[in-house]
Amino acid sequence: NHVVRDAVDIVVTLSDHRKFKAKVVGMDPSTDVAIIKITASGDLPTVPLGDSDEIRIGDWAVAIGNALGELDGTLTVGVISAKGRSNLSIAGGSPAYQNFIQTDASINFGNSGGPLLNIRGEAIGINTAINPSGEGIGFAIPINLAKNISRQLIASGKVTRGYIGI
């Protein structure tokens, strides 16, 4: 969400350098998840989705992104340092619902929206935040949370949450 929130034009560039205009299908600032859509013919590369509930502290993690907005295809390696991180103050706005995967695989400015992969190449998270005052501490949205939010955004363009109030 924070990557496309204020965007006027969105262009998706693939690793083979093809470029596509994209449109926002829906955004959820509360989890920092957004869905964009491109129209393309032919085969598009995909990343298989894993199960973020199955990750364990110490599992290998691979972060892919566009570091610093100019180093496309950056790949860094580390481990899962923690699960369920919350109450984080994040530059640019903190999502209301936080359940982050913490990793020491370097996540830099520009990596947001890129996948956090397990050792089998499955996406287990979406890179979203760093701690700018700490080194080697990055955070990703668990892919299972993103799957749930994305289904709602694709179906209706918004997320509906139930709550009990007293």
Architecture overview:
This protein is mostly beta strands and 166 residues long. The chain has 1 helix and 9 strands; from the N terminus they run E-E-E-E-E-E-E-E-E-H. It has one helix spanning 143-156; strands spanning 10-13, 19-28, 33-38, 60-67, 71-85, 100-103, 115-117, 123-130, 138-142. The strands form 2 sheets. A 6-stranded antiparallel beta barrel has the order 4-5-6-9-8-7. A 3-stranded antiparallel β-sheet has the order 1-2-3. A hairpin with a 3-residue loop joins strand 4 (60-67) and strand 5. The chain is globular, with a radius of gyration of 16 Å. The protein starts with 9 loop residues before the first strand and ends in a 10-residue tail after the last helix.
Keywords:
166 residues; mainly beta; six-stranded antiparallel barrel; three-stranded antiparallel sheet; 1 helix; 8% helix
Describe the secondary-structure layout.
Layout: E1 10-13, E2 19-28, E3 33-38, E4 60-67, E5 71-85, E6 100-103, E7 115-117, E8 123-130, E9 138-142, H1 143-156
Antiparallel strand pairs: 1-2, 2-3, 4-5, 4-7, 5-6, 6-9, 7-8, 8-9
